[in-house]
Amino acid sequence: MKWEVVIGLEVHTQLSTQSKIFSAASTAFGSAPNTQTAVVDIALPGALPVMNKEAVEKAIRFGLAIGAKINHKSVFARKNYFYPDLPKGYQISQFELPVVEGGAITIVVGDQEKRINLTRAHLEEDAGKSVHEDFHGMSGIDLNRAGTPLLEIVSEPEMRSAAEAVAYAKALHSLVTWIGICDGNMQEGSFRCDVNVSVRRPGEPLGTRREIKNLNSFKFMEQAIKYEVNWQIEQIEDGHKIQQATILFDPDSGETRMMRSKEDAHDYRYFPDPDLPPLMISEDWIEQVKADMPELPEAMQARFTAQYGISAYDAATLTASKAMSGFYEAVVTAGADPKLAANWIMGDVSASLNRDEKTIDDCPISTGQLAGLIRRLMDKTINQKGAKDLFRALWESDKSADALIDELGLKQTTDTGAIEAMIDEVLAANAGMVAEFKSGKEKAFNALVGQCMKTAKGKADPATVNEILKRKLSS
Question: Is the dihedral of CA 263, 267, 268, 270 positive or negative?
Fold first, then answer.
């Protein structure tokens, strides 16, 4: 009998504020251990938390981006548990009244779109970090992260495969970086995913879930989910029961392993934090944040298809990141044909960036250089082969497209008289191919075109060559 996979994600998004959520300590990454802490972060007696306004505004911004409800009254709670890197013995989080409720994100898997509903997004502080290095057989505690502002984004359990979960995580990652609330650096822990996985027979109640903690790679997420799904199915089919647990994924073995039995909400003994009054968010404040919102990906996609006449697929690809969409618009604004610009960016530019392990922000070719190449392709100064040669040269140079065209001699021949004389020369030298074509072998025509382009050293206009060759062969 078929099994159905049920997946929900809890994503911890580190908000890109300069200071922590309840103190003025820096959030900069990479400093020496315990050098970025304040009295609040290390829980000195009598130290009181003060809310970071910017963190609230970033949470509001996210809620607006996903079409969620922004609660006008939001409450902070104490989530009680003991762990060495949690100096207060509790984490300040939100439980019953989060900042953001509801909303949805659209994902694309293959050629299928799906809306994933969100449960909530709530503000909380991060914990510190246990460091297991050379401490003479002991572990150390680094509290630099303690108090770093997080927005925990919780989805409904509506994903049905590893592919859907990864698509959701990627879409969420793109959105939080797009609207400027998170830098998205997964290696530094700015975007960490916890994945709840269970299986059930279709139509039956939800199965017991196990939570895979702290996945910081889309590749590892996919591997972890696939392994966990197969493990749970095997356990059930062998007559065992799944027990709720928190588990870790080991990338070296490709396996998940249990860390501890999973707590429920009541185990944390949530209660309102007496040091923090309710967070009151006025409609005017929400409108101020809304006025500062950038154009969102879905709206930009619709505009690209309407304004530039490109396909929905191209528009979706070009708005995968804010940097990519900005690069595309700059190329078009500089005079490039919108469809050609899309083709070059999604083709040669993306392939070259992947080869050199660069991002669009570090693209060696400027938007002006690429627009110059496309303009010369449009006005037939160069042909497609010349454009490829020019692209490779531009990748290594800061010169303009026009300067390199002249320097490398890439201008194509458009003189019909010269092209006609060259074709006559090719026909005379390839009587056998001409005879094959006239006997009905169409492939001979392509071979003759190849000979003409070879004779012209790739500089003849292919359309003109085709036109004149067809005329001469039919006469």
Answer: positive
